[in-house]
Amino acid sequence: MSFSVTDPSKGAKWFAGILVVAYAVITLIPLLWIVATGFKSPVDSIAYPPVVVFEPTLEGYVNLFTDRTRATDDMLEAAGPPTTWYDEIARERGTVISGPSRYGERFLNSVIIGFGSTALCMVLGTMAAYAFSRFKVPLKDDLLFFILSTRMMPPIAVAIPIFLMFRNLGLNDTHLGMILLYTAVNLSLSVWLLKGFIDEIPIEYEEAALIDGYTRFQAFYKVVLPQAATGIASTAIFCLIFAWNEYAFAVLLTSGTAQTAPPFIPTIIGTSGKDWPAVAAGATIFLIPVMVFTILLRKHLLRGITFGAVRK
Amino acid sequence: MIHSPMDRAAAKTPDGVAKRIRGLSDRTIAWIFVAPTLFLLLAVNIFPLIWTIRLSFTNFRVNRPNNDVEWVGLRNYQRILNDPDVWATMQATAHFLIWTIVLQVLIGFTLAYLINKKFKGNDLWTTIIVFPMMLSPAVVGNFWTFLYQPQIGLFNYAVTFFTGGDPASFSMIGDVHLAPWAIVIADTWMWTPFVMLICLAGLRSIPDSIYEAAECDRASKWRQFWTITIPMALPFLMLAVLFRGIENFKMFDLVVQLTGGGPGNTTTLTSIDLKREAFEKWRTGYSSAYAVILFVTVFGLASIYVKALNKVKER
User: Fold this and answer.
1) Which of A44, A156, A172, A285 should one mutate to test binding to chain B, selecting the residue with the greatest count of B CBs within 10 A?
2) Of A55, A202, A46, A114, which Cα lies nearest the Cα of B16?
3) What domains sit in chain A, N to C, each tagged with a CATH number?
């Protein structure tokens, strides 16, 4: 029988659907506003009442990726006629492009630190999770709880000793330092999540492989790793998202070479005050990867955000 | 009947072959596999924590490292616990925690309840609702300041449009009474989906047969909701509260970008206050003691709460 007494009526479904869609639309408005603001001119971005229909421009993106200075007559003469469309946009505002902005660098730092820490975290996390899942590790439960509890610490509480330690080791404001730091921050998540995924792989596969003459290591990487691939991939994306979005450590421990985008985006200013279209453009570029990953992660979302404490 | 090596293994050794030694022993492999993780966590989490505890008994200042470092005993702790400003900060944090949790649980549970009606296309809308919590809180906070701007901000415009206020003088983040609500609203926008997802998992864990039995007993829908749905979903709700509680207790990025703790000190949560002491006033010893107090508080509260949670689960 496909119809059960617990199936909601058609009317109830409609009612629920309308309310949920209404909430989703309200949720989306600030996000769409960010994207839209990125394509507005400075005047449109602060218009009152706020404009919904406007002439799109790439000015925000130009301002995001370039540094500009107020153009004097000498500078205009030296620069000659505008050669590119982005040069032209700058000229329209009475400025000349004086070089690339630091956004590109910061974004690249986010990519390096995000992917670097995720890769390291996956290697260490998979090994530890495998050991916790398959072997009798002494004090297993205590160690697992210890690993989880490292997540409860406010970043600011340990920032000063980490700063002092990194300074002694020459790791301050370096990619390697931030990679190690974010790896440590994410290890709790990856060990817990991966242990859950590996627990689900029947132990018989490895036993069969061992009988066939494989060593433990061979059984691990020839049998278990391929089976755990989906779990490892989704764990990796969660670690990447956390490292990508992290702000507190980045703002406290980096100042130049290794600073990621989150502390940088709010500091973007134009030649005259806060340049909201450029901020919005920076935010949009930064948000897109995470939104794509969210769509890919739909199935594992709950597990990832709750350290596997809840399964869907 | 024994066909495959797998069956043979299972038949011969009930424990499996897991204990069999080939090359390295399993115990050695286990340690090789766990050691790097433990080492990194000890180096980057535990060692700094112990260092923080040590610093909390001194008057060390990180910007004047060459000064004589004096051992001051419990004086830092004494000062913090007697400082009315610290207590005001704690109070602001408590208000923030209570209101965000109440709102997020109410809205999150309602949404989960509605989505559980399995209407057409609910997966798509669920995914859209979940976007905010996946974004960078600092970037989101920064952009909410734009939405809250007097006159030009979209939020500001919408509120004054409906209430008929003056858009130029109405400011969510500039008003001492409204600023705490500004951070509550932004946090709720960002994190309600988290509570919703956990509630949804809770609702989906309730077997249909229980409702069918209740239906046979002619229990009203209302009665079913209070005697089946709520108790069965309660452990999940409590788990959501635990996670949100821990996260919001150490909340920093969203609020620091949104209000920076202002106006005045109205939105100065403990971690923002701690950041000021440590990285603006450079009172390292004092702020270390502050950090230890916060960590002990969150750890203690979380432990008590987890005990309660386990009791509810066992019921």
Assistant:
1) A156
2) A202
3) 11-100 (no CATH), 103-267 (1.10.3720.10)
